[in-house]
Amino acid sequence: MSNYETIPYKTYLDESEMPKFWYNVRADMKKKPAPLLNPATGKPMTAQELEGVFCKELVAQELDDETQLIPIPEEIRDFYKMYRPSPLVRAYCLEKQLGTPAHIYYKFEGNNTSGSHKLNSAIAQAYYAKHQGLKGVTTETGAGQWGTALSMACAYLGLDCIVFMVKVSYEQKPFRREVMRTYGARVTPSPSNTTEIGRKILADFPETDGSLGCAISEAVEYAVGHPGYRYVLGSVLNQVLLHQSVIGLETKTALDKLGVKADIVIGCAGGGSNLGGLISPFMGEKLRGEADYEFIAVEPASCPSFTRGKFAYDFCDTGCICPLAKMYTLGSRFMPSPIHAGGLRYHGMSPVLSELYDQKMMRAITVCQTDVFKAAEYFARVEGILPAPESAHAIKAAIDEALKCKETGAQKNIVFGLTGTGYFDMVAYGKYNDGNMVDYLPSDEDIAKALAQLPKV
Amino acid sequence: MSNYETIPYKTYLDESEMPKFWYNVRADMKKKPAPLLNPATGKPMTAQELEGVFCKELVAQELDDETQLIPIPEEIRDFYKMYRPSPLVRAYCLEKQLGTPAHIYYKFEGNNTSGSHKLNSAIAQAYYAKHQGLKGVTTETGAGQWGTALSMACAYLGLDCIVFMVKVSYEQKPFRREVMRTYGARVTPSPSNTTEIGRKILADFPETDGSLGCAISEAVEYAVGHPGYRYVLGSVLNQVLLHQSVIGLETKTALDKLGVKADIVIGCAGGGSNLGGLISPFMGEKLRGEADYEFIAVEPASCPSFTRGKFAYDFCDTGCICPLAKMYTLGSRFMPSPIHAGGLRYHGMSPVLSELYDQKMMRAITVCQTDVFKAAEYFARVEGILPAPESAHAIKAAIDEALKCKETGAQKNIVFGLTGTGYFDMVAYGKYNDGNMVDYLPSDEDIAKALAQLPKV
After folding, report:
1. Residue B241 in contact with residue B25, Cβ under 8 Å?
2. Are A325 and A349 in contact (CB under 8 A)?
3. What was the ipTM of the complex prediction?
4. A359 CA to chain B: closest CA distance, Å?
5. Nearest to B183 among A178, A183, A381 (CB)
6. Closest-approach residue (CA) in chain B for A109
7. Which of A168, B103, B230, B352 could cross-link to A209 by cystine, CB 3.0-4.6 Å?
8. Rounded distance between C-alpha atoms, residue A342 and residue B430, angstroms
9. How far is Cα of residue B157 from the mean position of the Cα atoms in its chain?
10. How far is A335 from chain B (nearest CA, A)?
11. What are phi and psi of B231, to 5 degrees?
12. CA separation for the pair A154, A122 (Å, rounded)
């Protein structure tokens, strides 16, 4: 039952209700995520080792498995106020069209120029870089959302921003590149010949479309080789999930205000930044035994790390220069087909989510991209928002769950994360409109081959 | 003084505070806008004559100069709830960067998939078409915002949507076309050879980039020639300003809640839909002598209807098949240069605004596109929103007013309309980033030549 006579279409928190702390779900985990390992020694990375690559304060956040609430600095909270709180939307029109008794809610993170939730962590990482007195940061970007977000944050704080953009996205999404340039970033297609590792990958795979793994290697190499620069990453890492917990915290506060208890929480999963951020405070309740929720990770059938990968130590990057992380992985040499949800093409998955998945605290499903675009178009027409292909993975799953409710008559509360908009994905939509979209599924052999190259730990 | 201890960054109204009536500023005008004339007879168009082109209920709204408050049907209000209320933003960061004592507010209409305020009237017009039992509607679109908005509204209501898109935009903005197609619209570049008038314009100006005036002619011809279709227009008309009054009404309610009295209200002006909608309730107070405001219309130097046009009866379209409207106009044969603010390329100006301008109730200024893009980039970096080139005209003017306040020390409250986002304008931004943007100004001769062809009434 709701506290409101009628639940509004959109619930915005007041600024005073916005989170003042990030929520660190690791604090609630009895079995913690496995530590990052130094590939040379096989021993856990020390703070000092990590600080060569990452900002000092971010390393502290990365390694902190105990503090449940970590204060959000005021300057970051002020920046958040420029585009947050994001609305929690009751999908009345979708429910009506589906004829489902389920109540569907989505947390919409697309109403900012980066077009996604990525800005939540970008401003935090840029802030700590600035406070450390650095000149700039380097990063990789897939679909371009993270790179755009970081460019915006760096422009705001006056930091230099160097982006290695996965080649296929660089070519398919030239407009993203221009947005980043408008914010003053330097953008290079990856693999490039500006780094040693880029040249090596190009020599080994001259026809490659690029991958997040390659781009990470290049960005790390650049940062390590240039004084005053550090590397920042938009997903996978513990610190990123921490920053993204603002999504879940706002969602939970809004649901609590409305008197609504979520039954199912759904998020698309590439590296896990959105899913991890969305579910964190709910997962905390589940881990503490205070409430139960069903969590669903939705991944593309073409890059199925949870559902067809292995839970093992692996490199975070294709160039094998980063620390090893224990995660569900398809192998750092796995090269996904050029699907259109560029943000979901990473070979691995957040160590936090991987550990929770291994503990059976959540389940994972895969969806094919043609089904995803069908759901995206349907959603656009019914709810008025043109979703990012990434986000549409969660839409597809939410629709399927709502249709199950229609069969069973269960009036479940379904909450999903609508991570962003598809305005820069019109090449893909055009292909779908023209009937030229196909599904790519990796063969068992492809996956086995990539997994055979996992490092021995 | 404000009612709030601290004015929030963003003020959202509750759904219960959203307008239930549109505000018809004509009711407050002692001297009404001149009526539309039948070009054949020179006499005012009757409702019956207009109903061959427009929906019945919209004709009634077009001709109603007396009713101040016109109820918004519930179905439209429900649709509004999907993307409204739009935020009234306090531009704290911009103020700080400028070092101005002025307080700057903007009403941001870009947080919906059409990317602009155009959806406010699109849903209204589609709704009345649907209620009249029509099959579909035809329209023109310049920058593509109006066409996208209409496509969304038609998809929602299950209406056929036929869009003639100004050729230069069709080519420069292929992604807009795909958005419209995703929403099920049929999109044709204009001038086209699918209409008689299109073929004629192509014969006379084979190299034309197209213009809103041409596209209007084609859309009207198509509607009149196909039973079950009517023509709808995204700007200029009285009915459009009426629907767009939701912008001003929400702005005024929010300012009243905050205890803030606007001193200056600024809007970009192409056909006048945004400016008219934004200022309507404020203008009403000024017309009734209840309050004073300074209103500023900002138009592109390349298409300066207020500042270099003539207040006279003219055709609304290049093909001269529409009724005559008394407005500030550059002449219906005026062909603006291919500037990047496609939405501001119309030769004329809303008759309501034209009459108010003639009564000296507002002033108008022009800005050059290079200055507009400079302001746009600055705003994007400081306030985090990448504006549409159209909207950036208002930004430029607001910044200039704020800098004047810095000189004088006046703490004015400046309110401007941020009509939309520039996500589909990255070709233009790219040109600006590359330093390849230039300004086009029509010569006195160009304007005199076009004005010489005004119809004799």
Report:
1. yes
2. no
3. 0.94
4. 39
5. A381
6. B111
7. A168
8. 22
9. 23
10. 28
11. -95, 140
12. 8
Best probe of the A interface among B95, B108, B111, by most A CBs < 10 A, is: B111
Please compute Rg for chain B using Cα positions. 20
Nearest beta carbon to residue B433 from set A79, A182, A377: A182
Residues near B225 by beta carbon (within 8 Å), at least 6 away in sequence = none
Do A82 and B384 make contact, defined as CB atoms within 8 angstroms?
yes
**Separation CA A144–CA A156 (nearest Å):** 18
Residues of chain B neighbouring A182 (CB-CB closer than 8 A): 377, 380, 386, 429, 433
- Chain A: nearest CA to B227, how far in angstroms? 26
Tell me whether residues A384 and B421 touch, CB distance under 8 A: no
**SS3 letters across chain B:** CCCCCCCCCEECCCHHHCCCEEECHHHHCCCCCCCCECCCCCCECCHHHHCCCCCHHHHHHHHCCCCCEEECCHHHHHHHHHHCCCCEEECHHHHHHHCCCCEEEEEECCCCCCCECCHHHHHHHHHHHHHCCCCEEEEEECCCHHHHHHHHHHHHHCCEEEEEEEHHHHHHCHHHHHHHHHCCCEEEEECCCCCHHHHHHHHHCCCCCCCHHHHHHHHHHHHHHCCCEEECCCCCCHHHHHHHHHHHHHHHHHHHHHCCCCCEEEEECCCCHHHHHHHHHHHHHHHCCCCCCEEEEEEECCCCHHHHCEEEEEECCCCCCCCEEEEEECCCCCCCCCCCCHHHCCCECCHHHHHHHHCCCCEEEEECHHHHHHHHHHHHHHHCCCECHHHHHHHHHHHHHHHHHHHHCCCCEEEEEECEECCCCHHHHHHHHCCCCCCCCCCHHHHHHHHCCCCCC
Q: Test A9 with B382 for CB contact under 8 angstroms.
A: no
Distances (CA, A) of B74 to B11, B13, B15, B19, B78: 24, 18, 13, 11, 6
C-beta separation of A126 from A157 below 8 A:
yes
Of A181, A384, A426, the CB nearest to B83: A384
Contact A58, A128 (CB under 8 A): yes
Q: Which of A14, A372, A381, A431 to mutate to test the interface with B (most CBs of B within 10 A)?
A: A381
Contacts of B183 in chain A (CB under 8 A): 380-381
pLDDT tens per residue, chain A (457 residues)? Answer: 455 568 999 999 999 999 999 999 999 999 999 999 999 999 999 999 999 999 999 999 999 999 999 999 999 999 999 999 999 999 999 999 999 999 999 999 999 999 999 999 999 999 999 999 999 999 999 878 999 999 999 999 999 999 999 898 888 778 999 999 999 999 999 999 999 999 999 999 999 888 877 898 999 999 999 999 999 999 999 999 999 999 999 999 999 999 999 999 999 999 999 999 999 999 999 999 999 999 999 999 999 999 999 999 999 887 788 899 999 999 998 888 777 777 788 899 999 999 999 999 999 999 999 999 999 999 999 999 999 999 999 999 999 999 999 999 999 999 999 999 999 999 899 999 999 999 989 999 999 999 999 998 8
Q: List CB contacts (< 8 A) between A426 and chain B.
A: 174-175, 178-179
Helix axes A426-433, A369-383, angle to 10 degrees: 100
Chain B residues within an 8 Å CB radius of A104:
none
Contact A102, A263 (CB under 8 A): no
Amino acid at residue number A399 = I
Tokens at B13, concatenated = 């109204």
Put simply, the answer to whether B156 touches A384 (Cβ < 8 Å) is yes
Partner-chain residue, chosen from A79, A381, A426, that has the shortest CB–CB distance to B155: A381
- Dihedral, CA atoms, A416, A419, A422, A427, nearest 10 degrees? -100
Q: Which residues of A touch B92 (CB under 8 A)?
A: 78
